[in-house]
UniProtKB/TrEMBL annotation:
Topology within the bilayer: Multi-pass membrane protein
Matching InterPro entries: Poly_Biosynth_Transport (IPR050833), WzxE (IPR044550)
Pfam families attached to this UniProt entry: Polysacc_synt_3
Organism encoding this protein: Dyella acidiphila
Keyword line: Cell membrane, Membrane, Transmembrane, Transmembrane helix
The protein's name: O-antigen translocase
Subcellular location: Cell membrane
Lineage, opening ranks: Bacteria, Pseudomonadati, Pseudomonadota, Gammaproteobacteria, Lysobacterales
Transmembrane regions: 7-31, 43-67, 79-103, 115-136, 148-166, 172-195, 216-236, 256-276, 296-314, 334-355, 362-381, 387-408
């Protein structure tokens, strides 16, 4: 399937997911204002952490190896049996850990022990979330973008209905609970759709340990966990730092701009993940890899520049629409954030080369280094410039990350 068709289907799915997420943010902004949005960010960071840990962080590995082995029935069966075993073991471990630490997590992240039952529900949901991640990764590996989009659209539509119902009944607590249960809706919707696909086999639901395949998945687990866990952890540290320096209301402004950034970039990052990861994994000739990367820049960079410019021009209207008039303090933060967004997409397209080609050590080290450098830059720049310094830190850190990825890509592709 071409990038344009992939972008079309992934765009529809992303729009549905985005709408579901924005409904939650809007409701929280109504219920709790900037402070509530700041705390919502903490809970969503925890969800991101546990969602990745639930499946052992092997989704990218499943996508890569399904793309490679889809014409080799024996290897594919071994891979998927091992992947399901790996994911279920990891989800059980994380669920138990989250249950045991539910009180501490509620107090640390949300500042209120009354949310402990919400953390417990999230912990119990880990098994279902792991199965949903596994299912979506297999579909992505077969590059069945249309079926993947259909599952996400239907799941998101049901999530919106759940958010509206639970928030009307339980207010802020209900909105947060709907975020958790919405993850399980993907599994309920997706299994029947996946079952009807031409490539589905009952053996794909068989659980079996395989040492060789588990070792391969473990390398991807390390890379995926590093890239997925570090940003939420670093963002938690950034929020806590900003809260100590400027208060939770200011954190709400920072969170609002960050969420808008994440929202519109989701269209592009989803297309990169759905199309380029399996494409790069299945492409072995270095000339062909270079051509794929050039093709990505030709389509995606103009798109991100146009989107970033549109968000900047419409920032007042977007902020009022998605949040409320109480968020006027966020307007000044947009410019450096949007510049950083453009550089971020340029970096991501190159960084997927490391992921697709299993450059485990280099990928993990680079993720750790640049996560810590971002946190250090936030401390330095907020001391110099105030709250907007966090956005300057974001843009500069991604500029450094982009330079690093250019060097890696040139060396791998054999450029002089």
């Amino acid at each position: 399937m071409s990038l344009v068709r992939t972008g079309f289907y992934s765009g529809i799915a992303t729009a549905a997911r985005l709408l579901a997420g924005l409904v939650v943010i809007k409701l929280v902004a109504w219920f709790a204002g900037p402070e509530g949005v700041g705390r919502l960010g903490q809970f969503m960071s925890l969800m991101s952490l546990l969602a990745v840990l639930a499946g052992g962080g092997i989704s990218a590995g499943v996508v890569k190896y399904v793309a490679e082995y889809r014409d080799d029935a024996q290897k594919l069966a071994r891979l998927l049996s091992a992947a399901l075993w790996y994911a279920l073991c990891a989800s059980c471990l994380m669920g138990v850990a989250a249950l045991l630490m539910s009180g501490q997590l509620a107090q640390w992240l949300l500042g209120d022990a009354r949310y402990v039952n919400l953390i417990r529900v999230l912990a119990i949901a880990q098994l279902g979330i792991a199965l949903a991640n596994y299912m979506l990764a297999v579909i992505n590996g077969f590059m069945d973008v249309r079926r993947l989009a259909w599952i996400q659209v239907l799941g998101s539509a049901l999530s919106v209905l759940m958010v509206l119902g639970l928030s009307r009944w339980l207010h802020l607590y209900g909105a947060l609970l709907a975020l958790v249960l919405g993850q399980l809706l993907l599994l309920a919707v997706g299994l029947p759709v996946w079952w009807r696909s031409a490539y589905f086999r009952r053996s794909m639901l068989r659980i079996r340990f395989d040492r060789e395949m588990s070792r391969k998945l473990a390398a991807f687990s390390l890379m995926s966990l590093t890239s997925a866990l570090l940003p939420p952890l670093i963002n938690i540290a950034v929020r806590n730092h900003l809260a100590q320096q400027y208060g939770w209301e200011q954190v709400g402004y920072w969170q609002a701009v960050s969420k808008i950034s994440d929202a519109y970039l989701l269209f592009l990052t989803t297309a990169i993940n759905i199309y380029y990861l399996p494409k790069l994994a299945a492409t072995h000739a270095r000339d062909a890899l270079g051509a794929e990367l050039r093709n990505a820049y030709r389509y995606l960079m103009p798109a991100v520049i146009v989107l970033a410019a549109a968000v900047y021009l419409l920032r007042d209207w977007i902020t009022r629409l998605l949040f409320s008039a109480d968020f006027t303090g966020a307007y000044a933060l947009y410019a450096p954030q949007l510049v950083g967004d453009v550089i971020k997409i340029a970096s991501f397209m190159l960084s997927y080369l490391m992921l697709a080609k299993a450059m485990t050590r280099l990928f993990v080290v680079s993720e750790c280094v640049f996560a810590l450098s971002y946190l250090a830059l936030v401390y330095v720049f907020t001391a110099w410039f105030g709250l907007i310094g966090a956005m300057y830190a974001f843009a500069l850190n991604y500029l450094l990350y982009f330079a690093f990825n250019v060097v890696v890509a040139r060396r791998y592709l054999g450029a002089s």
